Amino acid sequence: MSSSTELLAPLDLAFWHLESPTHPLHLGALAHFGPVPGGPGHEPPLDVLDLLARRAAAVPRLRMRVRDVLLPVGGAAWSADPDFDVSRHVREITLPGSDFPAESTRIAAELMESPVERGLPPWEMYLLTGAPDGSFAVLVKLHHALADGMRAVAIGAGIFDEIAAARRPARRPRPVPPRSWLPDPGSLLGLARARLGDLGRAVEVGASVLGSSVARAGRLDDPAAVLTAESSGTRRLATATLPLDRVHRIRRTTGGTANDVLLAVAAGALRRWFDGRGLPLPGTDPRALVPVSRRRPGTPGSGPGNSLSGYLLDLPVTEPDPEARLAAVRLAMDRNKAAGPSRGAGAVALLADRLPPLAHRFGAPLASGAARLLFDLLVTQVPLPRSALSLGGAPLRALFPMAPLARGQSLAIAMSPYGGQVHIGLVADGEAVPDLDALAAAFTAELDLLDPVNVTP
């Protein structure tokens, strides 16, 4: 295997095979930028597209495509695309300028419906222009096999002025001497022991996942099933913005973490949304999968690809008191952290790490609908750099993350703090959740219930 080829990690391989032509599995972000200083006033300078393309092409990970390999059986590998052409990945779309933010959200939802081309490096970027004041937006799509949320931030950050300026020149890869794919006799014993260890951990994690699935067997006819639906192939996107200082003020008053506060706000927003739809509250609280990164600097998990597990959280939608909702979230998350990320259905990502490539290749299509048996929706937080960012001198105003929808699920919520705000991206099945804007508006109303200080009488 050459130095420019790298096997897909087991979880990455699972995400690669979970996708189908009618159900894409990419994550994304919609970034809004202010006008370029000194720009013409009606549109960004023409070199913004060229700048975006050059910086994206300079990220080594974005030049890699997926190819099948003979060994291990059923496996696949990342390899440099010898015919890489950045113009096939970076495009410009000019939108009507009358309501640019709404138009950019609408077109982003449409663009998120289609899968990235699998024969090419699996990513796309779109420069969205047409705002009267010269502001613009950039939509980024990355296949989930390429990166988890934290890795996606590291990859996507390469387009920003501050990150590009600090990027070191790529080192020439050291030649790797050819070697046989067969292990030497001395390593066979260690290899066997490692596989037995993996098997033992897989059984332990699998039992935990199965136990959580059985516990949910009676929940499928609940009104919360509105959050699960057969995929229509359509996408709807909505956004919300919350002041970060208010989130932290609540945290300082009640204890816990800022993420606890945001999860409680999400629970209240769902409750308000159920009520606005005229639906009865579910008999049992909808269960959220809260991804947990296992990525740590200087550890094997800090490399490329996906490195995550997850916690399960029953969002207290049936609790009428907002402070009690926050207390319930804080208690449940404390229990999750004490138990660790290898317990419950959220540990299914760890189980994927223990399976051989052939199991992912043939098992992923069969298991693609299993998510609805484990949880009802995804709620994730994607951290961003704390420093101010820009593109071609245009300041980044907001970045709304977009999480992928699991098959059979209607809603995913992603949140990113940046610039004193929490930017919330809601992705939904377009037919199952046509009123996604109402849910987005409910986030602000629910924050006001927990922190009434800034609410105007």
TrEMBL record:
* Name listed for the protein in its UniProt record: Diacylglycerol O-acyltransferase
Q: Which residues form the O-acyltransferase WSD1-like N-terminal domain?
A: 8-261
Q: Note down the stretches annotated as region Disordered.
A: 285-310
Q: Which InterPro entries match?
A: Acyl_transf_WS/DGAT, O-acyltransferase_WSD1-like, O-acyltransferase_WSD1_C, O-acyltransferase_WSD1_N
Give the domain of life.
Answer: Bacteria
Task: Give the reactions, separated by semicolons, that this protein catalyses.
Answer: an acyl-CoA + a 1,2-diacyl-sn-glycerol = a triacyl-sn-glycerol + CoA
Pathway assigned to this chain's UniProt record: Glycerolipid metabolism; triacylglycerol biosynthesis; Lipid metabolism
What family does this belong to?
Belongs to the long-chain O-acyltransferase family.
Where in the numbering of this chain does the O-acyltransferase WSD1 C-terminal domain appear?
305-450
EC number annotated for this UniProt entry: 2.3.1.20
